[in-house]
Amino acid sequence: MKIMKFGGTSVGKPERMHQVKDLITRDSQKKIVVLSALSGTTNALVGIGDALAEANKELAKERIDALHKHYLTFYKELLKTDGARTKAEKIIKEHFEFLNIILKISFNEAINRDILAQGELLSTKLFYTLLQELDVPAVFLPALDFMSIDENNEPELHKISEKIKVILSNYPDDRIFITQGYICKNHRNEVDNLKRGGSDYSASLIGAAISAEVVEIWTDIDGMHNNDPRVVDKTRPIAQLSFDEAAELAYFGAKILHPASIWPAQQYNIPVKLLNTMEPDAAGTTITAKEQGAGVKALAAKDGITAIKIKSSRMLLAYGFLRKVFEVFEKYKTSIDMITTSEVAVSLTIDDLSHIKEIVKELEVYGTVEVDNNQTIISIVGNMIAESKGSVAQIMNCLQDYPLRMVSYGGSRHNVSLLLDAKYKNDALRSLNNGLFEWN
Ligand code: ADP
Ligand code: ASP
Ligand code: MG
Predict the structure, then answer these.
(1) If you measure from the C-alpha of residue 273 to the centroid of ligand 3, how many angstroms do you get, rounded to a whole number?
(2) Total count of domains within the chain
(3) Residues 216 and 344 occupy one common structural domain
(4) What stretches in the chain show pLDDT beneath 50?
(5) Most buried pick, 34, 103, 233, 402, via CB within 10 A?
(6) What is the pTM of this model?
(7) Residues forming the annotated binding site?
(8) pLDDT at site 294
């Protein structure tokens, strides 16, 4: 069985949904099709939740109505027969009635997550209606019946696997299954989600849960590019990446993949392919366990980073100091991305500021603490960078004009990470693009 995940732009227009139908019916292989919300919908739902959180019901209502209008146009272009249109009207009515009811009750975080789930529920139901109209046999699998996360918001892969296998065993002869990306149930049995961009993660988790042959991530670009195409003009797709390289790029900001989406596939050794819905025959990127080629393959940048420096001439040399520092972060469930040490200070970075005040207060017990916000990590990823002669010199050469706050090298063979002020990010990415890759 294979997994085919289609992102927001791949289902965001009626003609694209028809294209998705063509792609999933090109071969007769059994497949689970994972869909995101139509592009723009999750952002709109976030906007509705934000308005309600500020108790601005008028604005929330305005936003609900604007989104509703979009869907009323969308389904008429998507579907042609009266029967299918009637079904779609019912689906849209049900979900927008739900949003309008929320306007009348008191708002909380659990309701907000219910709001966010509407996008994937709508896209999959509308797509399923299209398949019915076109007589394409398919089974609708509600993700909320099998996708779950625990009290630490970690996916419960074993439970997911058990549940989905039981469900699939009810349909031995069916070939196409449609389900939602992004949404899941949490340990309180409430509707929850795998965070923004989480449909990739859903696809990889489902792939791992059923030991799929391949997880295909269909999007609006022909694979992982060597640099961020939103920032740099000249970029090119990378044919092959190892799981480790892809995981580093995803974690350090390559938006094409959700940061956590590689580990489930890696754990079960399932190839992941990044493919372009608009150019289905382009090679895209294949991600497997194989480590190939040497030298720099790609760069990615992660914004919204905060650097924390703890300076203590008295404490640092004492053994156990780093453990005490790490324990503070562990206590507040805040993960550390980069770390560098000197004799008198340790610097590290985080991207989650939910507990920054408490963390700083507790660290001050061990020394003086400095906090720098608005930093960016640029991660340079490839195979055996650490062993390749001159590659670090080449990287530094490109960055002569930018003050580097931190440099992390040697932690893995695949990665060199740099921290600099966010204002230098775009220029630094461009300079590295020109200096590290050959362009003719
Ligand atoms: P989807 O809606 O299909 O999940 P996303 O918008 O989440 O698509 O991801 C695809 C986008 O990721 C591309 O359009 C591209 O602008 C952006 N992107 C950022 N970095 C990279 C990269 N290194 N390679 C390819 N795409 C990237
Ligand atoms: N619809 C969700 C989002 O926009 C999940 C996804 O697209 O992967 O974040
Ligand atoms: Mg995405």
Answers:
(1) 14
(2) 2
(3) no
(4) none
(5) 34
(6) 0.95
(7) 5-8, 42, 120, 219-220, 230
(8) 80
